[in-house]
Amino acid sequence: MWLKVFTAFLAFVTGACSGLKVVVPSYTVHGIRGQALYLPVHYGFHTPASDIQIIWLFERHHTMPKYLLGSVNKSVVPDLEYQHKFTMMPPNASLLINPLQFTDEGNYIVKVNIQGNGTLSASQKIQVTVDDPVTKPMVQIQPSSGAVEYVGNMTLTCLVEEGTRLAYQWLKNGRPVHTSSTNSFSPQNNILHIAPVTKEDIGNYSCLVKNPVSEMESDIIMPTIYYGPYGLRVNSDKGLKVGEVFTVDIGEAILFDCSADSYPPNTYSWIQRTDNTTYVIKHGPLLEVASEEVAQKTTDYVCCAYNNVTGRQDETHFTVIITSVGLEKLAQKGKSLSPLASITGISLFLIISMCLLLLWKKYQPYKVIKQKLEGRPETEYRKARTFSGHEDALDDFGIYEFVAFPDASGVPRVGFPSG
Ligand SMILES: *[C@@H]1O[C@H](CO)[C@@H](O)[C@H](O)[C@H]1NC(C)=O
Ligand SMILES: *[C@@H]1O[C@H](CO)[C@@H](O)[C@H](O)[C@H]1NC(C)=O
Ligand SMILES: *[C@@H]1O[C@H](CO)[C@@H](O)[C@H](O)[C@H]1NC(C)=O
Ligand SMILES: *[C@@H]1O[C@H](CO)[C@@H](O)[C@H](O)[C@H]1NC(C)=O
Ligand SMILES: *[C@@H]1O[C@H](CO)[C@@H](O)[C@H](O)[C@H]1NC(C)=O
Ligand SMILES: *[C@@H]1O[C@H](CO)[C@@H](O)[C@H](O)[C@H]1NC(C)=O
Ligand SMILES: *[C@@H]1O[C@H](CO)[C@@H](O)[C@H](O)[C@H]1NC(C)=O
């Protein structure tokens, strides 16, 4: 871009010096075979001119330039060999090539001569490429039946029927695929080889093909990759799960759900363990343990997930403990009390006693003060009033609550009271 601006500037400067400038908007023009191609040229000069001459030459790599056509004022003199192919309408110096063929690829040179007070002359060169547009690519995948993770390889081939100078790019979920330890490309980039495939290779693949005149993307293809099982886990609709232990209340029927990530989906089987014997109790992802079946307190189960294509399996062990909170407590009551229970009991007893004492005291002080007042002089009465709350330590007994009132102003009070 900047180079273009700079060269345009240079052309302007040199042209300005000679009083003639020839400008082309683009130094490279990409054409489509069979269509017309227009090569725009602008020129300008500042001297009076009697004759304006325009000449077009064509040069292919390392060959002599060929004369195509020329003009003086408004009359065109074509090379008779190419007269039907190249058109110019002087004084407009732009050239029209129609139809464009592969053999027309090369450099086109335009030279403008101005005859006036002396002769001014300037020229420009335009590079022309000729291409066939790309047709929609198609992706072929091998093996089409799919590949097993870490075992199989996969080859994606991008096929294009027509188009020249093709540049291939592979996209996965719309983003370019890069070379990695498992991904490799053919020299042309039209083949993507994945060896071995992994679960991470699953995605929406497409092939993008470009050339100077067009670009097309294939339909999306999703390779089949067999994997798993991964992340086997058991969940239940009820009960408390801690690690591999499910704790449930007695009398409840629980539904267990075993799941693992796998393609194709796993086949599941459930195994129950009693003493040393194990036996398969069910096939399928769900297991219901009905209350009648929950005869034992603790039962060990195994859920086994098997992928019949990858040939791999995984299993998870879990334990079901049947409890009932109420029944357990009752069962423990007869046995020795735990130290915690003893402390709780003693504390409860103390609190209740203190409450009773407080209630009694709340009623009693009036009686005591009344008795005292009846038999005492006034001074003593005042004293009694002053100290009535502190005469007896029992009077102070009670439940005290510390209540913090937030300052109305919202500013915490810090420091000492001034009074
Ligand atoms: C071109 O045009 C100019 C003025 O319009 C005229 O003087 C000159 O003779 C013309 N040249 C030719 C070759 O016709
Ligand atoms: C030259 O002719 C083309 C159409 O044939 C036109 O678009 C273009 O503007 C012309 N250029 C000048 C400088 O008149
Ligand atoms: C022609 O060019 C000469 C020298 O370059 C100059 O002295 C003269 O004034 C020019 N004449 C016109 C008409 O521009
Ligand atoms: C997958 O490719 C690796 C290396 O390219 C090769 O060793 C292996 O045999 C291939 N496996 C299959 C199943 O074609
Ligand atoms: C792949 O394409 C399908 C539909 O063609 C779409 O549902 C899915 O979300 C796409 N996956 C990604 C990862 O883009
Ligand atoms: C359980 O099996 C182990 C070894 O497999 C054996 O030593 C043990 O005696 C068995 N216990 C019972 C109760 O069968
Ligand atoms: C795998 O299991 C599914 C059903 O679970 C069955 O339809 C399929 O045929 C099995 N495939 C093989 C290769 O055994």
From TrEMBL:
Listed Pfam families: Ig_3
Membrane association type: Single-pass type I membrane protein
Cellular component, GO annotation: centrosome; Golgi membrane; midbody; spindle
Protein name, per record: HEPACAM family member 2
Domain Ig-like, first and last residues per copy: 137-221, 223-319
The UniProt record lists the keyword Transit peptide: no
Signal peptide (residue range): 1-18
Lineage: Eukaryota, Metazoa, Chordata, Craniata, Vertebrata
UniProt keyword terms in alphabetical order: ADP-ribosylation, Cell cycle, Cell division, Cytoplasm, Cytoskeleton, Disulfide bond, Glycoprotein, Golgi apparatus, Immunoglobulin domain, Membrane, Mitosis, Repeat, Signal, Transmembrane, Transmembrane helix
Predominant place of localization: cytoplasm
GO BP annotations listed: cell division; centrosome cycle
Function of the molecule: Required during prometaphase for centrosome maturation. Following poly-ADP-ribosylation (PARsylation) by TNKS, translocates from the Golgi apparatus to mitotic centrosomes and plays a key role in the formation of robust microtubules for prompt movement of chromosomes: anchors AKAP9/CG-NAP, a scaffold protein of the gamma-tubulin ring complex and promotes centrosome maturation.
Transmembrane portions of the chain: 340-360
